[in-house]
Design brief:
The protein is mostly beta strands and 999 residues long. Helices cover 6% and strands 46% of the residues.
């Protein structure tokens, strides 16, 4: 096939022309994506053709060098390329989401030592070019690390733990979280092949809510880049770390692999909880399995890739034990006693991914991919909850992506259509009545939950809808240097669903007497003393569905002012309309209660006046359908630089400042409608309590009530709104972070090092506070909050505002000696020093211990340890054996607690106060992970690998539970001790065995 000839000269463009072209693209109504592709820039002979050919797929891209010899090849998929221009030829590997330099005008450098691994196979090809000229604070995670470094899960995000400033944690339930700095886990966004995976309900990566599963099949991930701050303007809906991953593609050769991985309770030590006196190790197992296959459909033109991964777990849970005291279990019914003891949490996940790539001619590429995820698990079980009272968590996710790349003479246009459908659907493990056993008639002293979960646990939350995206990159503009300019617009419509608090599963309360409860028979009463249930109000349903409309515009200029100085200048603007928030009308009954009589009219004539005395203008929260406007001020400028001190990329100073907007989560924003649709009722039974018969509050027992909410509905004399009132501020703003950094990268022999000082100030985090006030406006009286002073006829008033802030200063140090086959070893080290303060830490979004979020002091946050060091090593042993290790050391993070019963020295200060306490131990985490694998070459093309991963090899306890003695005699003198049989930062020692066949 003949290739179309291109002009050997390129017209110069002025910066004004570039800006005009970008504006025209933006005005076209299309949208942009966050690219995982690479950019190759450098010098060649003036007017020469520069051609890059992907050695695995045959994909060919070419561009003409400008009059000064500058060239830029943009939109190159990560992989290995043969780059030619005139008589010059180089073979290099490009990493995901990087912009690197390659000088073709000078003589070829000496052959580098060793090789780097390609994305699609285990073949070695060429050394990766290191990105040094960028203002981003980021680190790449290679396929070699993913395939070799010890791993607890098969969640590819686990390796982000090796990047300074990042934490990946897995709790005792198997749920994993990834956090950047001290910000919430929801502030992270992951972009796979340029598409954000954001959960609009919970934030972070969709599908990870209360999940032990993986967001994406690890077999399908080629490599990824972690950018902790100062990312470029193309990245949206992110406040902390942006993780950019590229998936594998098929090549001109058929390749595949199949694997299996397993561990069980015989291959692990006891958890701290299992070492408690009288406890036994629970039977658990984890099995993981999958395969991948890729290859050509049309040589050099069309390729396919497909992968599947599955999980089947029995995860340990705390045994079921009665609360209040150890011996009270003997007074529970015999059939209930049989449910005490060990319990596990089953988990199953299926992950599918497929991709079809088609190079149409020399200048166009079509790509279609699909991901399907299905998982089921039992959760919220153990402790005082039996297996029958557990809930089932169902996560389902489908994502489809169609992209078209067109390479013009001086530009690259990327057009993309996507569709997503992701839902989190916890349901009851058992449908029916929940039995709640309490000590006597005290509903707050629960002994055991049995038979079914509460209707409050039955939910449906998710997002689905299409997006259209386009971005355009101009690669040959000259004005006071060379520019690569990228611009575009995004439009997305996502249907959001927020449903919770089902009318199913009423809760019946049974009194248990262990001999300490006067007036009650010994043992468990046969008749419940009360029932709690929900009913919809006036035909409403506790569900809201709305369509979020999102638009985002940006322009980014990577400007090589000189051969040494690069400026990264960007600006983006984002806008979102959520009709359920903007068009909400506060129910008339709620308005009447808020503007009606106060709880003591002799002090405050109206409840609104009562609130005003306490600093709340209720008009800021009452909406008539036209009271709210979408936030239009989300302009995010970003400015960065890098300066090559010697002109040889060995010592580069870089820095940047910028703003990045995240989002208000719909899990919070939908509560106005959801909470107002249900009425909650509590009815007591005179047979047990002796209460005075009163319709709707005290009735005689009837066994027919056990048949469900239809029978219970007859107890309600009038179905009125009476539940909790959740109101949002009419002027909500979008959470954002301001980011500042300065650093230096160095290349010393085979070593790459980096030192960065970064500061991130996150603002306007969303928070719910208690709106109730005493009649005189006080929030505290006699050390108590006004929980009893609710709007007449309703439950508590909960108001939502912006206001959570964190301030994080970090020193980020890294050193890497990349693995090469020739040297036979590789090493990475990442050290983070963090000083983090905030008025609310972790992922907390409720703050009921002070009148407003502004009343919370800034304290040291538990979200991040002060010191953290992570090191990894890979070493080739004889007989095709590879050893690897990972060491994690971190100081114990502070404890964030609320204390409220001590005088702190000033008058009238006996009120709850947030405090940060030092943990009693020096190390929060001390962990050594080891891995050993052997490759056996069955044929020239078939390799069998067997592998063992020993996690937490030294079996360090890494305890994370604490007991606090706050002091006596009204003297604040906290003493913190560790809980020897409590929770842990890490899993106990465990051996994982795996095998895979590669061809």
């Amino acid at each position: 096939m003949k290739h179309r000839n291109r002009s050997t000269t390129q017209p110069k463009r002025k910066l004004l022309t570039c800006a005009l072209a970008s504006v025209l693209v933006i005005a076209s109504g299309q949208a942009i994506a966050q690219s995982s592709n690479a950019t190759l820039r450098g010098k060649a002979e003036a007017g020469a053709q520069v051609t890059a050919v992907n050695t695995a797929t045959g994909t060919k891209r070419q561009v003409t060098a400008t009059a000064d010899g500058s060239y830029a090849l943009v939109g190159l998929a990560p992989g290995t390329y043969k780059v030619t221009s005139g008589g010059a030829e180089r073979t290099v590997t490009l990493q995901v989401a990087t912009s690197v330099n390659l000088d073709l005008a000078s003589a070829a450098p000496a052959a580098p030592s060793g090789d780097a691994t390609t994305l699609d196979t285990v073949r070695v090809t060429a050394p990766p070019l290191q990105e040094v000229k960028t203002s981003e604070v980021g680190t790449n995670v290679s396929l070699k690390q993913i395939n070799t470094v010890p791993q607890l899960t098969r969640n590819f995000l686990e390796f982000a733990d090796t990047v300074p400033g990042m934490q990946f944690t897995t709790d005792g339930s198997g749920h994993s979280d990834i956090r950047g700095g001290a910000q919430t886990t929801s502030a992270v966004n992951v972009y796979i092949d340029g598409v954000g995976q954001k959960s609009y309900l919970f934030g972070g990566v969709s599908g990870q809510q209360q999940s032990a599963g993986n967001p994406f099949p690890q077999l399908a991930i080629g490599e990824y880049k972690v950018i902790t701050s100062n990312y470029k303007a193309e990245f949206d809906q992110v406040g902390s770390a942006a993780i950019v991953a590229s998936t594998k593609s098929g090549t001109n050769e058929f390749h595949g692999e199949v694997f299996g991985r397993t561990t069980n309770s015989d291959m692990r030590t006891e958890t701290a909880a299992e070492r408690a006196p009288g406890r036994d190790k629970q039977k658990t197992h984890q099995d993981e399995y999958g395969f991948a296959l890729g290859g050509p459909i049309i040589q050099d033109k069309m390729h396919f890739f497909f992968s599947y991964e599955g999980k089947g777990f029995e995860i340990s849970a705390d045994p079921v034990v009665p609360g209040t005291n150890v011996g009270i279990g003997a007074y529970l019914p015999t059939e209930v006693q049989g449910k005490l003891g060990p319990v596990t949490r089953p988990f199953k996940e299926d992950l599918y991914f497929g991709k079809l790539s088609w190079d149409i001619g020399e200048n166009d590429r079509l790509e279609f991919s699909a991901k399907i995820r299905e998982e089921d698990s039992r959760d919220s079980v153990g402790g005082i909850t039996t297996a029958d009272a557990a809930k089932n968590n169902a996560n389902s996710e489908k994502r489809y992506d169609l992209s078209w790349e067109h390479y013009g003479e001086t530009y690259l246009n990327e057009f993309r259509l996507t569709y997503e459908d992701a839902f989190f659907n916890p349901t009851a493990y058992s449908l029916g009545n929940q039995s709640v056993y309490t000590l006597g008639l005290d509903q707050n002293r629960v002994i055991l939950f049995d038979d079914a979960t509460s209707g409050l646990a039955i939910q449906l939350k998710g997002q689905k809808g299409p997006a259209i995206q386009n971005d355009i990159t101009f690669n040959s503009f000259e004005w006071q240097g060379d520019h690569v300019i990228k611009a575009g617009i995004k439009y997305k419509e996502v249907e959001l669903t927020q449903s919770e608090n089902s009318t199913s599963n009423p809760s019946f309360y049974y009194a248990v007497n262990d001999g300490t409860q006067a007036g009650l028979p010994l043992g468990t009463s046969a008749i419940p003393y009360q029932v709690r249930f929900n009913l919809p109000f006036a035909g409403a349903t506790p569900s809201v569905v709305t369509t979020s409309k999102q638009i985002g515009l940006y322009i980014q200029d990577d400007w090589n002012v000189t051969d040494r100085l690069q400026l990264n200048i960007g600006l983006r603007w984002d806008y979102e309309e959520i009709p359920s928030y903007l068009d909400n009308v506060t129910p008339a009954e709620v308005v009447a209660a808020l503007t009606g009589p106060g709880t003591d009219p002799t002090i405050s004539a109206t409840y609104a006046e009562q609130l005003a005395r306490g600093g709340i203008d209720i008009n800021d929260y009452i909406s008539n359908g036209n009271s709210r406007k979408a936030d239009k001020d989300n302009f995010a400028p970003r400015l960065g630089f890098s300066y090559d001190l010697g002109g040889d990329e060995r010592h580069v100073i870089f820095g940047g400042i910028g703003r990045s907007y995240d989002r208000n989560l719909y899990d919070y924003m939908g509560l106005e409608q959801v909470k107002s649709a249900l009425s909650g009722y509590t009815v007591r039974f005179s047979d047990t309590t002796g209460c005075t018969l009163t319709p709707g509050s005290c009735v005689a027992w009837n066994p027919n009530y056990l048949t469900g909410t239809d029978a219970l509905a007859g107890l309600v004399t009038s179905n009125v709104r009476n539940g909790e009132i959740d109101l949002l501020n009419n002027d909500l703003e979008t959470p954002y972070s301001d980011q500042f950094s300065i650093g230096m990268r160095n290349s010393i022999g085979e070593w790459n090092t980096s030192a960065t000082l970064a500061y991130i100030h996150s603002k306007e985090g969303f928070v719910f506070t208690l709106g109730n006030r005493y009649p005189n406006g006080d929030f505290f009286q006699n050390g108590s909050q006004p929980w009893g002073h609710t709007p007449p006829g309703f439950g508590a008033l909960i108001i939502g505002n912006n206001g959570i802030e964190t301030k994080t200063t970090q020193l980020l140090l890294s050193a890497e000696k990349p693995y090469t086959k020739e040297s036979g070893w590789g090493f990475t080290a990442a050290y983070t020093f963090s000083h983090a303060k905030g008025n609310r830490g972790g992922d907390e979004h409720y703050a009921f211990d002070a009148a407003t979020i502004e009343d919370y002091p800034f304290i040291d946050l538990k979200a991040v340890p002060e010191h953290r060091l992570v090191m990894t090593g890979i070493y080739d042993l004889p007989w095709n054996i590879t050893a690897s290790a990972k060491v994690t050391l971190s100081s114990a993070p502070p404890l964030n607690e609320i204390v409220g019963f001590y005088n702190y020295g000033a008058p009238n200060t006996v009120v709850p106060r947030p405090v940060a306490l030092d943990a009693p131990q020096t190390f929060g985490v001390k962990q050594l992970d080891l891995s050993l694998s052997k490759d056996m070459f069955v044929t020239e093309n078939v390799t069998v690998q067997v592998r063992a991963d020993l996690m937490n090899a030294l079996d360090n306890d890494n305890l994370s539970g604490y007991n606090i003695n706050w002091g006596g005699n009204n003297v604040y003198n906290p003493v913190v001790t560790q809980q020897l049989y409590g929770s842990q930062f890490t899993q106990p020692r465990a051996l994982f065995l795996s095998a895979r066949v590669i061809w």
